[in-house]
Amino acid sequence: MRVLCAFPEAMPSSNSRPPSCLAPVALFLALLLHLFLSSQAGDRRPLPVDRAPGLKEKTLILLDVSTKNPIRTVNENFLSLQLDPSIIHDGWLDFLSSKRLVTLARGLSPAFLRFGGKRTDFLQFQNLRNPAKSRGGPGPDYYLKNYEDDIVRSDVALDKQKGCKIAQHPDVMLELQREKAAQMHLVLLKEQFSNTYSNLILTEPNNYRTMHGRAVNGSQLGKDYIQLKSLLQPIRIYSRASLYGPNIGRPRKNVIALLDGFMKVAGSTVDAVTWQHCYIDGRVVKVMDFLKTRLLDTLSDQIRKIQKVVNTYTPGKKIWLEGVVTTSAGGTNNLSDSYAAGFLWLNTLGMLAHQGIDVVIRHSFFDHGYNHLVDQNFNPLPDYWLSLLYKRLIGPKVLAVHVAGLQRKPRPGRVIRDKLRIYAHCTNHHNHNYVRGSITLFIINLHRSRKKIKLAGTLRDKLVHQYLLQPYGQEGLKSKSVQLNGQPLVMVDDGTLPELKPRPLRAGRTLVIPPVTMGFYVVKNVNALACRYR
User: Fold this and answer.
1) Which pairing describes strands 439-445 and 420-427: parallel, antiparallel, or unpaired?
2) What pLDDT band is residue 443 in, cutting at 50, 70 and 90?
């Protein structure tokens, strides 16, 4: 409490009365004495303090980025895609003939394309010639049949449409790209592989007992990978093929034991170690689940567990998150395909890159449950637009972020989980709208109030382009449509994606992040040393 009193000018007489402010001072001292006596009597409750409304909202956050050296450099194809075997039921012809779908796929290039999932454990290659080919008709030379006698084309390559590069994977009993001269070699290899291994190379080997009634340990799985590598090497087009595995599930105790045995035997055989992650049980999910910081942080612990095992046997080996979904059991309609799910997806991208994971493969690109980027009508969902912005703006070099005014001092036994998450990368050097040396921030605000960020240090007084992504429509966080800087994002036509127009912010302006939103901010012409060269 502060007491203000204005003392009058000194009176000429020494017998003048005391100043008029002494009465309030005496009252104030009496109040202090009363409080002291109350505390001695055991009443230690703090007096209520009236905070000014909107005090939290006025907190200014200072943000700077280290621009000298990157802390990580991830794969150019960091954000990659997966197709689930369930699309076999719908037929590949829809996928191939849809100009709209090819346009959407091209927007997310460059990327690896993985054809995989649990159902690939039941896919078997059979040497069945296409009868139409003998009559000079169109179509593949050979068919791939699964256990339900579904027929799928086996010579499809999305990179022929200038979309994605193919990631060879041992649990994919199917190569999407072949040279005509090597087709017979491939058939022989498939037959030999099928006779030798049956269904031994699989997705989530830790669940093999549940799916097949048989178990496989890590050491045996490692030996199988070594033998698979020996089968591939004699064939010219596969002699340099990459091999990824073991594609385990969530790293619990038994799964870590399987990974440990595998790495001990075949750690040097695989080009990257792979695992899968699912955030939420799809049967029990609410929109607010996607805003829980505790849920967002579960991935970080899994990364550390995987890295600990990998670095024990093969330090520096690349690690891929080969299959990530927000919710299990195919997802939940109007939730895992909504704007709200984007918080998990964008945080996943930021956290994985920051912790050194080389590639993340999104399950699924289209037509599988409600975790996909594109729905069954080939309409892009919120996570697609989020991924498109990421591809256009984010480069592979990860930068350290320094924040002041955000972290609180943690109390003993209490973990502080931030609801404002900030990541920084060098801007994608393929984006010709920005010169090399620019920096892109992407920010997630899970608070129910807006946050103000002041760029400091090397970022001070720089021009900024804002790409703010918000839900569009009356559904709010459950919306399947999004707007960029207030303009709804829709395809121009089947062959044209919309222009992603930024909102320029004047130099030195404070960034205002609306509540429960996410966005990208390109800081132009920083001339960051870490971002000048590839």
Assistant:
1) antiparallel
2) very high
